[in-house]
Amino acid sequence: MLNSIFVILFFQLxxxxxxxxxxxxxxGPVIGLFLLLIILLMSKKNYYKIPINFQINLxxxxxxxxxxxxxxxxxxxxxxxxxxxxxxDNLVPVxxxxxxGTLLTLAVTAFVMDKLxxxxxxxx
Amino acid sequence: MIDQQKLYEIWVYxxxxxxxxxxxxxxxxxxxxxFYRRSSLFPLLNPVAISVLIVSVILLTFDIQYERYFDxxxxxHFLLGPATVxxxxxxxxxxxxxxxxxxxxxxxxxxxxxxAIFITYGLSSYFELQQELILSLLPRSVTAPIAxxxxxxxxxxxxxxxxxxxxxxxIGASLGIFVFDLMNLxxxxxxxFSLGLASHGVGTARAMSRDANAGVFAAVGxxxxxxxxxxxxxxFIKFIF
Lengths: 124, 241
Hints:
- The structure holds two protein chains of two kinds.
- By secondary structure, chain A is mostly helical.
- Chain A is built from five helices and no strands.
- In chain A, helix 1 (2-22) packs across helix 3 (52-67).
- Chain B contains 13 helices and no strands.
- The chains are: A mainly alpha, B mainly alpha.
C-alpha cells in the first residue's frame, strides 16, 4: 500500500519537475500519468519485470483513489460558486455559451467516435 | 439548559479549524452520493453538483470566506494530482483496446477539439462578449490547469477560465447523458471519450462511475484533448484576432 502511494507521488513529483524545468504547458500530474503509463507498458513488453505483487498493489491503490474522483472536485467547485460574481453581468450569456457549446461538442465527438469504433468486445 | 455562549465559542473555534471543513466536504459528498444512488443514478442529481451546492449554501449562510473553507478542503484538493497520475492504471489495463481503436480515437480527437474551439468562438461572438472574456472561454473543455495555462498564454484571465472550465465539467457530467440518450448512442467507449474530451476531469469521473470502458476512454480523451488544444488554440488565435 505504502509502496504504491510512494510510486504515484513520485511520478507526480517527477512530472512537476519536468513541467517546471522545460516550462511546458502540460501540467505535472499529466506528465506523471504519461511516464507511469510508459513504464508499465514497457514492463508488459518484457523490458524488465515489475513484481506481480507490487502490480496488484498499485492497481488496487489507484482504483481505490479513482473511486473517489468526484469527491476531489468539490473544493474547486465550491470555489466557483463563491467566485461567480467575477462573471458580473455576463453570467447568463457565459452560461449559455458553456451549456450549448458543451452539449454540441459532446454530441459531435460521440457521433464521430461511434461511427469509427470497432465493435467492442464487452468482456474485454 | 444549553449554554449558548459556550456553544458559540465552540463554533468560533471549530470553524477556524481545517477539521470542520474537511468533515463537511466528505459528509456532503456521502449525502449527495447516497441520494444519487437512491435515485438510480438520475443525472441531474450529479453528486459533485449537489455536494458543491450543499457546501456553498452553508458557507454563504454563515458568511464564511472561501479561503477559510479551502484551508480544510485543500487536503482533498491535493489528491487531484495523484488521482491524475493514477489514471495511468486503467489506461494500462485497457491498452490493447485503445491501440486497436487508435484511428477512431485520433480522428474524433481532432474533430472534437477543433469543434469545441469553433463552437465556443461562434457562440461568444454571437452574444457579443468582450474579447478578454472570449479568450477566457476558449480553452474551457480541457482540464483546469491546462486551460488556465492556455488562457494566460492567449491573453485571457486565468481565474475566470478556471471558473468557466469547472462549470463546463459539471454541465457535461450532469447533462451529457441526455444528449447521448437522445442520439441513441449505445457504445460506452464513444460516450466516455466525448465526456473526457469535452468536460475533462469531472466528465471522466462521471464516466468512470458508470462503465469501466467509458472511464478509460474518458481518461484518454481528457489527456489527449489537453495536449491537442494547447497546440492548436494559440494557432487559432493568431488566425482569428
